[in-house]
Write a structure and sequence with these properties.
By secondary structure, chain A is α/β, with parallel strands linked by helices. Chain A has twelve helices and 27 strands. In chain A, the strands form six sheets. Chain A has an eleven-stranded mixed beta sheet with strand order 3-2-12-11-13-14-15-16-17-22-21, sandwiched between helices. In chain A, strands 7-6-4-5-9-10 form a six-stranded mixed beta sheet, sandwiched between helices. A three-stranded antiparallel beta sheet of chain A has the order 18-19-20, with no helix packed on it. Chain A starts with a helix and ends with a helix. Chain B is mainly α. Helix content of chain B is about 55%, strand content about 0%. The relative contact order of chain B is 0.18. The chains are: A alpha/beta, B mainly alpha. The interface between A and B is medium-sized, with 26 and 26 residues.
Chain lengths: ~450, ~110
């Protein structure tokens, strides 16, 4: 299957939305349907307010607001950047990288930056105009990951590349004929998974996205019940498990459940399918690559790559992905075991990446943030032991900081990192023994782990 | 939704001590114990000050912790926290406020 990008004529562009008539429902907001005509009116309203030269920081927490913001920026030829975390330090880093940063928010205004609060009152009339086209080669987004150097790393996404990846995903996940489906999501649109599955897939499959992002399990049920079937739930193992385990909660009927960001157990997948009547598909991907593989977890342990992609193992023993919408080749951080015909097993994570409740960070980056705190002479996040448990595992850290309290260190870290990655526990030690290259020896690490265990048992 | 109301009706018709009659201090301690055990925190339930913030500062819980607590509350007290019923920030602004909210909504 050729990519969407390669099939488009040069300069022709690809449509923002696939909905083929003005009254088609593209979203639900506070229980009301929003037509294509009104969505475009909102997009044109906002487009008229954006500065002519800026880089748009889209921090919108709600999906309709995010979608209007992204669409308006694309129409104006402006790039949108999406940060990995929204801490004051990250925003400062981004502003240093991109002085023309301009925010869109639907929660709170950002200090020290120009921008706009959404939603705006609609001033443009309902639009019967043709759906806008966006050039396949236009760089529409830059997503950032926390780099091991301490600086955020940008991953540029072109419109054609995004559509290609989402088109393949829709076909693989059984969403190729998802016209009139409703997509409820629990994941941030600022991360690749939410961007692809909760925003672009509904756009491209003539489905509707739901503005509100449910938080509690009861909210998830309520959000689903508030919209007509067929319904798709875009979520993570962590939210799905909580939802399933909540007492006295009714689970509405669904056609599809999508899960990503962390492996889901077969037992949980089977329970979910039984209770909701849905087909549960897990998606594997990354910020660097977008979605690249899937499996129906209730029946299958192996992952299957999307068409046109291939996995090789590099000379260093790391898997590298190439082909299709992923070019040039990208090294994956997970350990994989290749089997025939583009199937593979996931065999554990790489050394640096860590995940808590499906959110990703880098140990090297976390360490750089800890060491950047005034008064911290040395410090280390302990690499987590491998765990098969569904329970959330926190990261322990040790620190040499004789003049700082734990509270002071935590406060300083809060300004820099996502609260999920705050150390639990944070242990003060007199020194951290490092070898000549500055690394911790295995024996020193084992001793530190023992020290942490003793401390928590006290 | 039906299961929620059915269990409430059963509670109202059986001859046991209604939840609202249980002393406040006992509930406070029970909720503190629930928090410590649900999150595997390394402190004793008595160390959670009744008026100190739970979320963000004070105890320093994050959104994942809130979900864990919501799950434990649903299992122990038989009702589900909802974002639109009351202000999340208020419910988790202190142990006392959380206990009060539980006292008002519990069915077990």
């Amino acid at each position: 299957m050729t990519s969407v990008e390669s099939r488009s004529r040069p300069g022709a562009g690809l449509p923002l939305l696939a909905h083929d008539h003005a009254q088609a429902v593209v979203a639900w907001r506070a229980g009301e349907a929003v037509t294509r005509a009104n969505f475009l009116a909102d997009v044109f309203t906002l487009a008229g307010q954006l500065p002519t030269s800026a880089v748009i920081l889209n921090t919108c927490s709600q999906y309709y607001n995010f979608a209007v913001g992204l669409a308006a920026a694309m129409l104006c030829g402006l790039e949108t950047v999406l940060p990995p975390v929204m801490t004051p330090e990250m925003l400062k880093s981004l502003q240093r990288l991109e002085p023309r940063l301009w925010y869109l928010s639907d929660q709170a205004a950002l200090a020290g930056m120009a921008g706009l609060m959404l939603p705006l009152a609609r001033t443009h009339g309902p639009s019967d105009e043709r759906v806008p086209m966006i050039a396949a080669k236009q760089t529409v987004l830059r997503l950032f990951t926390s780099g091991s150097s301490g600086q955020p790393v940008a991953h540029a996404k072109r419109w054609g590349q995004l559509l290609s990846s989402c088109r393949q995903g829709a076909e693989r996940l059984g969403l190729a004929a998802a016209e009139h489906y409703q997509f409820v999501a629990t994941v941030p649109a600022q991360h690749m998974y939410g961007l692809e599955l909760a925003i672009i897939t509904p756009w491209q499959q003539q489905a509707a996205l739901i503005n509100e992002k449910p938080f509690y399990p009861a909210d998830i049920s309520a959000s689903l019940q508030a919209v007509p079937a067929p319904r798709v739930l875009v979520s993570t193992p962590y939210h799905l498990k909580n939802w399933l385990d909540s007492a006295a909660l009714s689970l509405p009927e669904l056609t599809h459940v999508l899960s990503a960001t962390a492996p889901l157990s077969r037992a949980l997948a089977q329970r979910l399918e039984a209770q909701t009547g849905a087909v549960l598909q897990e998606i594997y991907g990354s910020t660097e690559t977008g979605q690249i593989a899937s499996r129906r977890t209730a029946c299958e342990d192996r992952w299957l790559l999307y068409p046109g992609l291939s996995l090789q193992v590099t000379a260093e023993g790391r898997p590298a992905l190439s082909g299709g919408h992923v070019a040039p080749a990208v090294a994956l951080d997970d350990q994989v075991e290749l089997v025939q015909d583009r199937y593979f097993y996931l065999r554990g994570r790489g050394q640096d990446q860590v995940k808590i409740a499906g959110k990703r960070s880098s140990l090297a980056w976390l360490n750089s943030q800890l060491l950047a705190i005034d008064g911290v002479k040395d410090g280390l996040y302990l690499p987590p032991a491998p765990s098969q448990s569904d329970e959330v595992q926190r990261l322990a850290a040790v620190v040499v900081a004789p003049d700082l309290t734990t509270q002071a260190i935590m406060q300083a870290l809060r300004a820099r990192i996502d609260p999920l990655f705050l150390p639990r526990p944070l242990i003060h030690v007199p020194a951290i023994v490092r070898n000549a290259t500055g690394k911790i020896t295995q024996s020193a690490l084992a001793a530190l782990r023992q020290h942490c265990l003793k401390d928590t048992d006290a | 939704m039906e299961r929620f109301f059915l269990s409430k009706k059963i509670m109202e018709n059986t001859n046991i001590v209604p939840p609202s009659a249980i002393p406040e201090a006992d509930l406070l301690r029970e909720v503190a114990t629930l928090i410590v055990s649900a999150l595997s925190l390394e402190l004793a339930p008595e160390e959670i000050a009744p008026d100190a913030p739970l979320y963000g500062e004070g105890l320093g819980l994050d959104s994942v912790d809130i979900l864990e607590i919501a799950l434990a509350v649903s299992k122990r007290f038989g009702f589900n926290l909802r974002s639109d019923n009351a202000d999340n920030a208020h419910i988790f602004s202190s142990l006392k406020n959380l206990s009060h909210y539980i006292a008002q909504h519990r069915t077990l």
